[in-house]
Structures
1.
Amino acid sequence: MTAVVSNAKMDPLPGPGSPAMMLRIQSLEARYGESIVLRDVNLEVPDGKLVSLMGRNGVGKTTTLKSIMGILPQSAGEITFAGKSWRREPPEARARAGMGYVPQGRDIFPNMTVGENLQLCVTIYGAKARERMPFVLDLFPVLKEMLRRKGGVLSGGQQQQLAIGRALLTCPKLLILDEPTEGIQPSIIDLIEDALLRLKREMGISILLVEQYLDFVAAVSDYVYIMDRGTIIAEGKASILADPAITKHLSV
Ligand SMILES: Nc1ncnc2c1ncn2[C@@H]1O[C@H](COP(=O)(O)OP(=O)(O)O)[C@@H](O)[C@H]1O
Ligand SMILES: [Mg+2]
């Protein structure tokens, strides 16, 4: 397949005046057993930017995020995060270094209350998580109302807010979200959209968003990558999402 690459690329690196990179993935390969799922994946998230990775079901988006988090070992390639190369470090080490991961399907603890779910982060991350708590409760006020409710009784959208809130308590440099709008009602999608824009604006957090909902991606992204069959086949500013040559790789 020929790669469709938009002219609207980010500034080439390195060079004076170009943005510093929070995350850089070069020639990433990942396998499940013998089968190669990712090949030659190249992707960058500049400091303070929101970058989206789109693609149909099964193309390798979640696998890319698992490789970045060290949940799945990369079989080849280079992951550079916050100026350091990451190869064998476990997920906990990456989280401590500033990767905040919200997995697909948002695995909160259903039998713990909202408050306990959040408090767990304070136990692990200490004072900086405690200091971040008011911001998280202000960002997602419903969590404040639901502090004593069990996580499992929340709606999908409320659980998503809890999952994002928990990741934010770790004070991430890079927030990594896997399909946060999946199965969530439109009013809460708007709320999550506003929250992501606020995180970027007020906290300067870099965000890597895996998402299939095109309008949402178009509204929040500084830059977009399109994946098909385990590799990046197109990239550019969010305006490429108006191009039928690009969106044909997204429609089912
Ligand atoms: N644990 C696993 N073991 C074997 N194959 C897997 C596993 N998880 C995903 N795959 C396969 O890897 C490919 C990419 O999956 P995934 O990264 O989850 O795609 P996406 O997130 O884009 O929907 C798919 O073909 C899927 O069937
Ligand atoms: Mg997935």
2.
Amino acid sequence: MILWYSGCGNSRFVADTLSKELGDSNMIFIPDAARQGTALEFGPDDVLGIVFPVYSWSVPKLVSEFLRTACIKGKPAYIFAACTCGDETGLTIKHLKKDLAKQGLTLDAFFSFQMPETYVNLPGFKLDTPENAERKISATKESLEETVKLIQQRAKGNFDRLKGGSSFLKSNILKPLFYGLLITDRKFTVSDDCIGCGICAKNCPLQNITMQNDRPHWNGHCTNCMSCYHRCPKNAINFGKSSIGKGQYYFKSENLKVE
Ligand SMILES: Cc1cc2nc3c(=O)[nH]c(=O)nc-3n(C[C@H](O)[C@H](O)[C@H](O)COP(=O)(O)O)c2cc1C
Ligand code: SF4
Ligand code: SF4
């Protein structure tokens, strides 16, 4: 079973690739499972993979909450996690281990992949150049091949090479400030370029957008994944003034829910 979450498709690409290469088609989208209260059942030989993007040098809150509270029956024989990040993971592995420990589960292997940046909500935070984005995707494709082999061998350990510096400060001090002060949908605006296509609403992983008079309306339970901003075909959505002129990116794949 592969539990996955992705806002802009980077982690979806990693989850899809692992699913295909490992021959495990049981993919569960964490926001759907959280909404539906899906119970997770494991036999003694089962493998569990968890795939998600790094948010604020940690596990996204919605993933943590799901892992801590889901109804889990049985124990997988092997648990691996793969995260994607723009730059650094900080103490993501430590936080994930704590989440799993709440359920009496132990993480066996942890992998990280640099993928194109998606966060544009603060001054100074911008997207990668197209060349950089391409370089990151190529490097991830390459290291996924090695990762698949390691998972098949049931390798154990921390294979994260992207921890970065000042990780305690970033993951433990800045993260609560980030969630308390910066994660909001009150700053989203929509310009007159909007054509009412509804792509933003259809792709919101948290179903936080409803269409009202052919315009998106944000309903207050956003995680700032930035899917709505990046996927808008008219670039009509902005996050205050911070995102203006920064461009758009999402991982394009024929497997994504809606293009
Ligand atoms: C809210 C938010 C917080 C982020 N925080 C970090 C971070 O702490 N470190 C980092 O390297 N990248 C960070 N990023 C970048 C994403 O982790 C990265 O682009 C990831 O591949 C996005 O995955 P997705 O396309 O599956 O949503 C953040 C992105 C968002 C939207
Ligand atoms: S995706 Fe863009 S154009 Fe389409 S409804 Fe949303 S804001 Fe409007
Ligand atoms: S409203 Fe936009 S940023 Fe917030 S969770 Fe939905 S798609 Fe992501």
